[in-house]
Design brief:
Layout lengths: L11 H9 L2 H6 L12 E5 L5 H9 L4 E6 L2 H15 L5 E6 L12 E7 L7 H14 E12 L7 H20 L15 E9 L4 E8 L1
Parallel strand pairs: 1-2, 1-4, 2-3, 4-5
Antiparallel strand pairs: 5-7, 6-7
């Protein structure tokens, strides 16, 4: 993976709406509808153009967000979109230009971590490392929100999902130079306890919300 996500930063929001409507955004914000306490400090990995950060700040205006993103263009667009969406409201949004795989995660610092359509860009080993570091960055009782593509177990949805996901990876390889070719096998560490789960589009999209025990 490299910074060629810059090439699709500008049209990304339009491409997403044309292909999936509002379904990906509904998946991103699933956790926000389940959380009944203030979020004070959040770490977002690969939030891209700020789609989740905007909704998080609307619901939790006092939240301090650290957003780690590898694409300079995506970060610039996210700053513009957040400023436009929140207008004159004060907010604490800190964009961090970095590769999450080598980012020095602080320990037990955040009460929320967002992994939304992010881990599908990495192989199994990278995902294991990123999940471990994201979990380590959570304070005890902190929440981790996950949203991504998934392959259903039932037919014919399984074959349809496999075909669609292969097409998505091919498209991102052509447009953005993404090297990953399949969805990773994810292993969630013991400190994370799943408290909510939801599937969408017959299992093509998966939502999970974890608490760090």
């Amino acid at each position: 993976m490299n910074r060629s996500f810059d090439t699709i930063a500008a049209p990304y929001a339009v491409l997403e709406r044309l292909t999936f409507g509002h379904k990906l955004q509904e998946a991103r914000t699933y956790a926000l509808r389940k959380i009944d306490r203030p979020i004070k400090r959040a770490l977002l990995l690969g939030d891209g153009n700020g789609s989740f950060a905007i909704e998080l700040l609307k619901r939790h205006p006092q939240c301090q967000i650290d957003s780690v993103e590898i694409s300079p263009n995506m970060l610039e667009i996210s700053k513009q979109r957040i400023a436009k969406a929140l207008k004159s409201e004060s907010y604490a949004y800190h964009p961090i230009l970095a590769d999450a795989r080598s980012y020095p995660f602080p320990e037990a610092t955040y009460d929320f971590v967002g992994l939304h359509f992010f881990l599908d860009c990495f192989n199994d080993a990278d995902c294991k490392h990123l999940i471990h570091e994201a979990t380590r960055a959570l304070e005890s009782g902190g929440l981790l929100s996950f949203a991504d593509f998934s392959i259903p177990t039932k037919q014919p949805y399984r074959c349809l999902a496999q075909f669609l996901v292969r097409g998505l990876y091919l498209g991102f390889r052509i447009l953005a130079g993404l090297q990953t070719e399949r969805l990773p096998n994810l292993l969630w560490p013991t400190p994370l306890k799943q408290i909510h789960s939801k599937g969408r589009l017959c299992g093509l999209l998966a939502n999970k919300l974890y608490v760090k025990t």
